[in-house]
Every structure is written in C-alpha cells, then in structure tokens.
Amino acid sequence: MQLLTPDEGILAIRLARGAIEYTIAKRPKPMVHLTPVFAEKRGVFVTLTRNHQLRGCIGFPYPVMPLGDAIEDAAVAAALEDPRFPGVKKDELSSLDFEVTVLTPPVPLECAPEDRPAHIEIGRHGLIARGFGTSGLLLPQVATEYGWDVKTFLDHTCEKAGLSRDCWTKKNVEILTYEGQIFTGSFKESL
Questions:
Q1: 165 with 148: CB under 8 angstroms?
Q2: Where in the numbering of this chain does the AMMECR1 domain appear (predicted)?
Q3: Per-residue pLDDT tens for 78-100?
C-alpha cells in the first residue's frame, strides 16, 4: 500500500476540518485539489480532542469507500455521532485538535493464541479483537500514549470489544493487526 506524502497528509487534514466546519458551522468547504490516492479505498479514523481530552473518534477499519469520502464521513461522525460524547457545537470548533489515521487493511494473526504477543509491535500495530458476534478496535497510537505493553494492549482491545480482557488467549477469538499513518492538525491552523 502506498503511503501518503506529507502534502497529502495536509490535504487529509483539510478535508476533515472542512467537512466538520461545513456540517456544524455551515461554512463552505475549502477548495482542495485531491491527488489520486484519495480515490483509492482505504480505512481511516478521525480522532477529535479538546484540551488533550478525547472528544470523538469514529472511522472505518476496512477499505469500504474512497479515502477522500471516508475522511469526510469519519470526521463528521466523530464530531456528531460518537455515542460517548454529545455532538460538537459551533463554539467548540476553534479549540479542537484532531488526527487523521489512514489504515492498512487488517490482517488476522496466523499463530497460536499464546504466540500472539510476539507478532505485535507497540507503536506500529493497531489491533482488532473479534469473536462471539462482537469486535473492538484500538489504534496503533493508543498503546504508546498509555505506555502499555503488548499483553495490556491485547487486554484493552478485547475489553473494547465487550469481551473478557484475556480473551485473546482463546482460539475462538480472532486478533487482527493493521498499521496506521497519522496526520495531526487543529482548527486554529489556517485552511
């Protein structure tokens, strides 16, 4: 999978910011000339923070739509549809910071459950735990931000899926890894 260039990362940030401003503040979307990578189907997450506190995080772990559309949809959903938070209000926009994380396709770990920790690299891999009709995802940067080791990261991913913390040690729970390319920005920066 081709990585985005730094300039394409700036475009990703502008797309996310523009979609949120258009939806919440009814401002026109910025004119953005997209490169061909934005037409490729990619997974993406948009994370919003305010004063270093999570304010919303929504995305698409699988490549189900063109990256440009996925960024805009995830940004608006992070601002308005994350069930953990009330929707972002217009007067909050100037205090928001965000991340756009472009994902590689998730790949199941093909090893015995007890060997899973050896195949996961903190700071590189994000995780998906899937089993018993549910799933949960944590982005690669989460383990680094909290200083978790691999087993703690696995435990928290299982917990996010609504499963027991140690379910990753079971054969009937699937663990998938993926990587993410992270771009950051704020509403204070000029469009």
A1: no
A2: 7-191
A3: 999 999 999 999 999 999 998 99
